[in-house]
Amino acid sequence: MTLSARVSRGLFWEGGAALIGQGMGFLVSLLLARLLAPEYFGLISIATLAIQSLVFFQELGFSAALIYRQDDVEAAANTAHWTILTTSVLLYAAAYLLSPLVAQFFRSPEVTPVLRVLALTIVINSFSRVPYTLLAKELDFRKKVLPEVVSSMVGNLAALVLAWIGWKVWALVAGELISALLVTILVYLISTWRPKLQFVRSLFGELFGYGKHIAVSQILIFGITNIDDMFVGRMLGKAALGQYGLAYKISNTPATTITRLVNRVTFPAFSILQASQERMRNAFFRQVRFVGALAMPIGVATVIFAHDFVYAVLNEKWAPAIVPMQILAVYGVIRSVAANMGIIFQAGGRPQWLAGIAAWRLVTMAVLLYPFIQWGGLVGVSLLSAGVAMVDFIISAYLVDKVLDARMATYARILGPMLFYALLAGGLGYLVNAGLLALGVWDVASLLAGGAALVLIYGLLIWWRDAELRPELNRALAALRQRARRDAAAP
After folding, report:
1. Is the pLDDT of residue 2 over 50?
2. How far apart (Å, rounded) are the C-alpha atoms in residues 285 and 364?
3. Which residue of 34, 52, 303, 416 is most buried, as measured by CB atoms within 10 A?
4. pLDDT band at residue 473, thresholds of 50, 70 and 90?
5. What was the pLDDT predicted at 138?
6. CA angle 435-436-437, nearest 5°?
7. How many angstroms separate the CA atoms of 237 and 223, rounded?
8. Which of the 8 DSSP states describes residue 162?
9. How far is CA 442 from its chain centroid?
10. Residues 6+ away with beta carbon under 8 Å from 404
11. Range among 125-139, 195-209, 302-316, 459-473 with highest mean pLDDT value
């Protein structure tokens, strides 16, 4: 099998696994939210935030360095394994000792035992990090995704059962531990690599020299994506953090999951990015068209159906998440459409722009979060996130224009009609939902019927009116069917 075929096959399996895992996790999260109080999700969010802030020091970018490395791979893998294992034990000790301080910062004493138990995932995951990385290095994605999908399904189902029988926050903790343990077991059953007692100091230096740059960039991204959780948890408490976290997940997970899948399926189009400015521009806007067509109706549906969704699927405990969910839906659409701008910066030889935008966003959020939360609570932080995302989009579009000569009018020409079709379909879907409710139909069934009407009407409008997207969709579906047949026939 050629390299390009292996990459294409790998992207197919990665995309499918992401869709299944994220979809399953999303549905289970809704069921868990119906069973558990918001403060339990807030406790998990606080503990996870603390753990993730430590995990950056777990591997020091060694996974990326190992994938990049071409010689002495076996010795480098052993060196990386024992380094990651050692740092993981030390980080768990740090999490255990610092957990009372974390609880004190967030004014939630219940965080201490939750963090001490959940932090065991740091050590458990360290055993599988290197063999998992080697599977990715070999482009053996079919084997790589099996532990992800199976462990996610089992862990989520375990959490659901334990929540049903009354384990409360410990149901969520147990689900995470079971998932981490199962990933480790499955990776070692699938991978042929086994660690040896070998540590080469010179290789450690080389791995660290490469990986430290990756670690620094990851820390910056972590700060951007989690600083709002830190402020919400500190200022508004664990229940509000749980509500904000669920609002973010519901409004962003569908759009971003589909975006990642579309990006992976259409990524080969970017193999010609450096050939010419015109080809680069055409490939980029094809991607914008695909992603916009999928993200726009999801965002509109979230805004229109958020209230009925919360009361029909969840319960009144989650009512404070309704308006933040609607605001963050705008953030999700913007984030989806802007997802590929970073690729353009890299392909155009301007990677420093990524760091500049990220630094600007982190500083802006850090300065404005406190006054916005003081002013509007969850609504304030949601408005700030959506506003900063909009400014990011404008800045990024301006910089993309410098590389591609891509005018803002092109975005409006592509996305404007999609927004109109989504709003029209959403309005008709809302009327279907409201009409069925007035007739006394079960609220969940009415909601599903309204959502189905939105999807059907929007799909027909796009198929009828968007002459450029129609052939692209036909080609994408044909490519997916062909790839699925190849993978089914492959040994």
Report:
1. no
2. 29
3. 303
4. low
5. 64
6. 90
7. 20
8. H
9. 32
10. 277, 280, 281, 284, 344, 348
11. 302-316
Residue 8: closest CA among 489, 480, 488, 491: 480
pLDDT at 463: 85
Q: Which two tokens stand for residue 305?
A: 């159906």
Are 297 and 425 in contact by the 8 Å Cβ rule? The answer is yes
Q: How far apart are the C-alpha atoms of 325 and 313, rounded to whole Å? A: 14
Look up residue 308 and give its amino acid.
D
Structure-block tokens of residue 354: 């990524």
| Residue 8 clears pLDDT 60, i.e. is over it | no
Task: Tell me the per-residue pLDDT of 199-241, one tens digit each, with 9 for 90 and over.
Answer: 888 888 877 776 666 666 667 777 877 899 999 999 999 999 9
Is the CB of residue 50 less than 8 Å from the CB of residue 95? Answer: yes
What span, in angstroms and rounded, lies between the C-alpha atoms of 153 and 168?
Answer: 19
The 3 state secondary structure assigned to 300-317 is HHHHHHHHHHHHHHCCHH
The dihedral sign for the CA sequence 435, 438, 439, 445:
positive
Alpha-carbon separation of residue 1 from 140, 166, 190, 485 (angstroms): 12, 51, 21, 15
Return d(Cα 324, Cα 27) in angstroms, integer. 20
pLDDT-based confidence at residue 479 (cuts at 50, 70, 90): low
Give Dmax (Cα) for the chain: 74
**Contact predicate 66/29, CB 8 Å:** no
Question: For residues 87 and 56, is the Cβ–Cβ distance under 8 A?
Answer: no
Amino acid at 414: I
DSSP label at residue 269: G
